[in-house]
Amino acid sequence: MHDIEKELEQEYDRFIEFGNLLDKRMRTYIVQYIQNKFNPDQHIIPTLSEQYFEYFQEALDRIFLIEGLLEVTQYNQRLKKQVILDILYWLRKAYQKSRLKNPYEDEQNALEGWAVTPLHTFVKRWAALPRYLSGIYDRSELDYFFFREKFKQHIQAQTLAEISEKDREQIEALLHDALAQWDALLYAKILEFQLSKFEEEQESYVEYMSKKVDEYNKIRDFINPFTDYLGWDMSRKLWQETSFDILYHYDDLLKNEASIKELADLLGNMREAEIELEEETLEKTIIRKEWVVDELSKSEIVGVRESDDLTNMLSSEASLISDEQTELLFLKKYADKKLMTFRYEDKKLITGEDHYTEINQRINQKEKGPFIICVDTSESMHGTPEQIAKVLTLGILKMAMNQNRKAYLINFSIGIQVLDLQDIANSIDDIAAFLKMSFRGGTDATLALYEAVRQLGTNDYEDADILMVSDFIMSKMDNDILEQVRYHQQNRNTQFHCLTLGSDANENVLAVFDTNWVYDPKEKGVIRALTRGFQHIKERY
């Protein structure tokens, strides 16, 4: 749990620093908003009166209003992490996609060109500006007629050298005002276009996410122990439709077969965890956050002011120094702190903390032992034994996942196939593939036991107990594997159990196992004919 929260914090930080979405302040607000939706008791919803953020907030709200989304993540931390990462990924991709095709690039280039035009050049070609604007905007949007008349009044047919200083200042102010109004209108058009494209992406994503939640809930309702381990890979379905059907079929058989459920429950008592009483001291911190204006930081342009700040002056001011005729004007404006410069403003997040200590006593339960299940997939198992083996396997796997225990599945015939079920998120289709498989081939349990013993030498399965499901119609096993089995029984306290399906088993092979259940396919119920005493098993577990 702690590791998942830590990974999420790292992903949040990465999104804020390198998200390539809006600016850093906006990304911080978005992260805070997502955190509040998943953990409302720990994070406060930010307040930001900006149209763009409000639009992203609305898009996120539509996602969080998907029926069942927050519920499926409430008790499954793995799933919550995957959903959050997917939302952050979608935000970045959708925003980038909305900015790729911009129909106003020519107008942007024109605006940028006029913004860097020196004053002496502008005086020569000023008439082109109101003429260009009249072809794009209505007079009600931008009064190009006003600017045309004012430029004509102050410039007339004169060169820059012939224009008085007072008129020059008026011309610069008018130019700045015209470009500012133009820039605001253009930005609004670009924003509207981007938001329309973003809305298209949003509609598609909300629809797809809704289907994903329905898909997840569909399997959760009937095969609950697996759901804590299901993944949320948005690039594919959680499982194939055929997988769903076969899992449902065998789950239904399991519910109706009380004797097999009884055996699965008995196996569930194996390797019970040791229980310890542990006292723990928790240091808890409540974090309060608020945004305040930071006068020393420069992040966002909020306007224009007069000053002598050379690093932030407008390009039109810089052009004055490039001409000997206007150089003195530049120096005077600089000395009088009258240069037109950008005005910046930023906000910083102030964090306050309250600390307190809480002492709790809890029961510390160590991890229960895992399972290694060897299932006979030979031709002699075809029919009822095959169905019993599949139902029992599903029952044990469900019980193992419900108790958070590892399981290792070995299918054997003349060869073996293995399935390590530590990663249930990517194993549902594999489990279903086993349940759909038609049994065939001869029987050789030696390879399966070799693989089981090999797993006993790993960290994940060193404490495992082994169950073999077979009709045990086979010849004797190699002496080498028998010696290894005896070693683990005597020195590692490993239990080797078997479930015999049928009445034609090789008694010499059965003698290898500590416990043997015999299941008669012709009758319901498990006949507990235990080779070494059922009472011994009950006392041990």
What can you tell me about this protein's structure?
52% of the residues lie in helices and 17% in strands. The model is unreliable at 225-243, 271-277 and 524-541 (pLDDT under 50). The protein has 21 helices and 10 strands. With 541 residues, the protein is of the alpha/beta class. Helix 19 (479-491) links the parallel strand 7 (465-470) and strand 8 (496-501). Among the domains are: 274-366, no CATH class; 367-540, Rossmann fold.
Q: Any low-confidence stretches, pLDDT <50, length ≥5?
A: 225-243, 271-277, 524-541
Major pleated sheet? 7 strands, mixed
pLDDT averaged over residues: 76
Intertermini distance: 30 Å
Which class best fits the helix and strand makeup?
alpha/beta
SS summary, helix count: 21
Output the CATH topology of the domain at 367-540: Rossmann fold
Rg over CA atoms, rounded to whole Å, is: 37 Å
What percentage of the residues does DSSP assign to strands (E)?
15-25%
So, the CATH homologous superfamily of the domain at 367-540?
A: von Willebrand factor, type A domain
Query: Can you tell me the CATH class of the domain at 367-540?
Result: Alpha Beta
- CATH-defined architecture of the domain at 367-540: 3-Layer(aba) Sandwich
In one word, what is the shape? elongated
Strand order of the largest sheet: 6-5-4-7-8-9-10
Helix percent reads 40-55%
Number of strands: 10
